[in-house]
Amino acid sequence: MSVDSGLKDELVLGDPDAPRFVFWKGKLRPVPANPTDLPFFDLMSIGGKLRAGFGALGIRPPPPGHEESVEEFVRRNLGDEVFERLIEPFCSGVYAGDPSKLSMKAAFGRVWKLEQIGGSIIGGTVKTIQERNKAPKPSRDPRLPKPKGQTVGSFRKGLTMLPDAISKRLGSNVKLSWKLTSISKLDNQGYKLTYETPEGLASVQTKSVVMTIPSYTASNLFRPLSDAAADALSKFYYPPVAAVTVSYPKEAIRAECLIDGELKGFGQLHPRSQGLETLVDRDLRKVLVNPRAKEPLALGVRVWPQAIPQFLVGHLDILESAKSALRDIEFQGMFLGGNYVSGVALGRCVEGAYEVAAEVSDFLSQYAYKHIHFPDSFLPNNGSEWDSNPHIVLEKTPLPKGLGCLETRRLCLGQGKERSKSAVEVTVKGLLTS
User: Fold this and answer.
1) What is the domain range of residue 266?
2) Which end of the chain is more exposed for a tag (fewer CB within 10 A), N or C?
3) Are residues 48 and 157 in the same domain?
4) Is the whole model's pTM more than 0.70, yes or no?
């Protein structure tokens, strides 16, 4: 996506060797980057490390008969120290949430699945690696940069460059300052969307709608159509989050905290037991800043009243209730997306967008097949010879330079149950894109 949107040269990758830190008992302690560093990890006791190792191998209590929270799953599988000193601050950093309430299955489904498929975290990891090695590896786009290892990335002027670049490529198809005020269902199975725009009211008719707005906003829009869907979408919780940006000159940083003249690392996590309310100022100065340093510059304060959706225990059931309610009122072509559906990380939002796009494509394909009308001269005189259940042929044509493939769907009306080679094939590509 970075390459396709023209941002390849603006992409900045993090240093895969840069350590993450956890603040514990007045000291920033680096988190191990690989298993060989575990013996030297001073955040956990020897007993805590042994408990985590045996638990990961499957020597721990069996799974309960109910949906586990992140805290329950981690304490059962890896022990108290891993939870209190690593996972709890990690959850606070990612979700700004309470791991005793977050659902392990919903919030960290890939880790939860390891125990399901392998009987333990290690067993599931081994099986996953084996299956990955057996599966054909997708070809890597040669246009992408090659990081040294697993890392994160952003853009030189921040993540806002990505939606701005995509909007620029889409041109007039992107409508800014259009506020969706109502959705109504049309008799022909489509939808009418009414917007408030700078030029006045405007309406759009469409066969499908993808709602990627926050769930609480979607709830208000669905209320006139389905109380069940609106009630389900209103149950997701978004806590407030504040971001404070301060700037110190380099000479204010303690010399022992610098590596090659730079403040190395990728952020720091703070367990609740270490006093979160004091860490922003007092303890940060003790650990990183010279006592005689000048006051920092406050570059900005940003508050989001409803920030990150919480994947609480029962989240997946509530989400399915919302989707089921839309199905019950025959809202075909209405799709839910966004971070409360796919996940809060940018990568998961992108993956979720591709998944929803595939669902929309399939829906429009089926809609097109159902609404194709052939002239009488097109079909043979004996219509009974034709199969009443036409089949779909999906063809993939590779594109040059590793750009992927072009998908073409065709409707095939075969003669008889065997669908002979003389089947009539109708390409509906033009119909789908119109």
Assistant:
1) 241-304
2) C
3) no
4) yes
